Amino acid sequence: MIQRAVHLLLLIGLSSAISSEFILINEVKSWTEAQAFCKEFHVDLPTVQMDKDRLEIQKASSAVNSVKAWVGLYGGICEWRWSYDNEDLQFSVWAPTEDPSSTTQSACAVIGNTGFWYAKDCTQTKPFFCYNGDQFGSKFNFIIFKMSWRDAQSFCRKRYIDLASISDVNDNTAVLHVITSIFKEDEAWIGLSKNQWLWSDQSSVSWPSLGWASGEPNNGGGDETCGYAFQNGLLGDRDCEQLLPFFCFKRVKAQVVRLAVKSSALLDESAMKLAIEKKMRMILSNLETDPAFSITWRAQTDGKTFQPLENDAPNTTTVCKQEPDSPIGDPPAFQDV
């Protein structure tokens, strides 16, 4: 009896991703409904901020004459808002040189060592203040570890309540004292931002890479905080409750299967491949998988697919043990405010 091993590569949408593509769902839904549909039946609403993403949009919509369809962009706010509870800006101490009314780009606010606030690129890394909700006798926590505004927001929401909201002169004076008298920092993030667009799949937003259509984003309806794409891949903003078709992002997956075939005679490789492919197609056709799968054979180093094994050869399959992640300590936090 001769055992022969074969490596079979199945592209069936069941394992780790190797490529991606967008599809157009020509069924109108609100942005939230579209997001739920994509997450249930595919992966998510797509991220569209690079040339290759815009090309995917063009490919997915090539069968229609024109389209405006939801993508994964959401949360654009053309007014300054506090991160905590999405509160409106009531109190402010903008520097005389600042123009907080500009809506041409995403921006986040810092407090400088003069006590004035400045609009900054949200991707810059700076220390920041977290809101602690008056727990343990302190309202704010100063984090000296430098992060982008978005990462700082995530940090504060996970370990405290949110990034700091400054509601009056007393708050501003207390925060200013920390960065000037205690840590002598030039500036630090506070929880104020505008036009803070996000992607549904949590990809980082690169404002310069967003391909907005002419005149967009314009918040034309007064509450246009969700993003859609034209057929050319350029973006616009619209009320999230409007009904539009939508794009979904899905992954093409790959799974490697190793088989041992027993035979009392030498095998014809071509015939064996055809037999196995036929059987696998029968199995896959009965599963709830993406029908657009393909089967590819993996050759060994000698160019052959089948390799003979000795009779009663022991199973030498090795299972790799995953090492635990190395713990990373939290950056220091101080409750001096």
TrEMBL record:
<dbReference type="InterPro" id="IPR016187">
    <property type="entry name" value="CTDL_fold"/>
</dbReference>
<dbReference type="Pfam" id="PF00059">
    <property type="entry name" value="Lectin_C"/>
</dbReference>
<dbReference type="InterPro" id="IPR016186">
    <property type="entry name" value="C-type_lectin-like/link_sf"/>
</dbReference>
<protein>
    <submittedName>
        <fullName>C-type lectin domain family 20 member A</fullName>
    </submittedName>
</protein>
<dbReference type="InterPro" id="IPR001304">
    <property type="entry name" value="C-type_lectin-like"/>
</dbReference>
